[in-house]
Amino acid sequence: MILSNFILFFTFRHGFDKSSQSFQSKLNHEFNDLNSSLKFENRKSHKYLKIFTSNSIVSKNSDFLQSGQSNSNRNNLVSRNFWQKFVNNYLQETIFLSPSSSVSNKYVNKLKSLGLSVYQGSEYRAFLHRFSKDLVSGKIKVGVSNVNDSLVSLYTEKQDTYLVYKWLKFLNFESLLLKDYKKKISTKLNEYNVNLINDSLPMFIIINSNNEMIISESTDQLSKNEIILKLYRQLIKKDFISKKLYTGLIFINNQDALEYKQSIEYQFANSTRSIKLKVVPTNMKLYSKFTSQRDSNLEFRLIPDLKEVSNLLHKYRSVKNITFEPNQQHGRNHFQGQPIYCIKPFYVKNKNTNSIEKVNYSYRVKGKTSVSNYKAIFFNYQTLMDAWKKFAQENASYSIPNIPDVSVSNLEAFIQSSNYKQNYDTTIFLPSMETYDFIKKFLITTSGNQINLRNRIINQSLFLKTLCYRIFWSLTTRQPIHL
Hints:
Structural class: alpha+beta
Strand order of the largest sheet: 1-5-7-6
Helix content: 25-40%
Number of domains: 4
Number of strands: 20
Strand content: 15-25%
């Protein structure tokens, strides 16, 4: 790949014919005549073609440009002035990317030897260092997926493709102008996605005494210049930094949330600040709102049931009736996402009619007047087996096998599938029984606190009365005490 910034600006007083000959053929032609002159030919004649370069000014009457042809006097090589250098160094620079070839390499080397390079010596090394640094950090994103971006343009001639990229070094004015418009569109899409979320799956978060969710700080992104970093994020493209400043954790298993809470309490055991943390249940609607918000400083991550992942990889993996979905990434020591289990449709003999019938497993929920059937998504294999045994007892007229065929995928991919979005209202998520026991105890404790609300108000009034006496006493003495 050739990375070139020799020809920085093209200024045409009469336009430029985009149907000119290809870059490769131009290189072949110009390289042969480069020792005598540097010519840029087009199919149509143009006047006053100016090319900005970095070094000495060469007039149109110099010996360098005289090639003996009538159009040689139309080419002027002009050096960059102070403001052009300032723009290139601090605001914007145009980068040309092309396939590497022997002809282009010789052409570039010849331009360097003639002093036509924008950067010389250490300046060019500094340019490459900054360019590679922005590539690694993600500030520069060039690929086939964003060729329609206003910063990227492609030119294809025969089998060769050339790329022109506008390197914004500080401000992205387009991002600032379209910020409100993009925000309105994303808000509408997020509201639509939230409405498709099933509320049957409980999740868990950690909150403090002010009912605020606990989030962690990313140490690799925090610095003494945090305010400057946040301001810089607002001025440039929002997605240039992949890492976030803060991370919020949402748990599938309440035990994992409890262990995380205990680790926080242990870490701040010697702190003078009083931290009262607790694990509370929530649902997928809150999770969807968190993950769909567009905040460059904050991200939310779903923590899967770690015990279930371990059981799946080391215990259930050898079970013959369990198969993984084709797109599911997994291995001996890893599994992508939160595992979910689904019972496959099966053929079974009807004992009453002696016929073979196809049966789709469904989870029945009894209402006041009717029974509703739901497609069951299990988060625990043992819960699935318990539900299967109950299903076999309720359908004794069928010769139901002892073990069902089960497919395994992950929650994150499932809720993004078109099948779920079309049938979300007939889908039910079934976690482990331990999860339901935790929620039951939580609700009992919460209702008990509401019953004792009167006692809590009395205690708070006594506390306020004592506090007022202490304030009055401190104001009437010479040495006020700490409240």
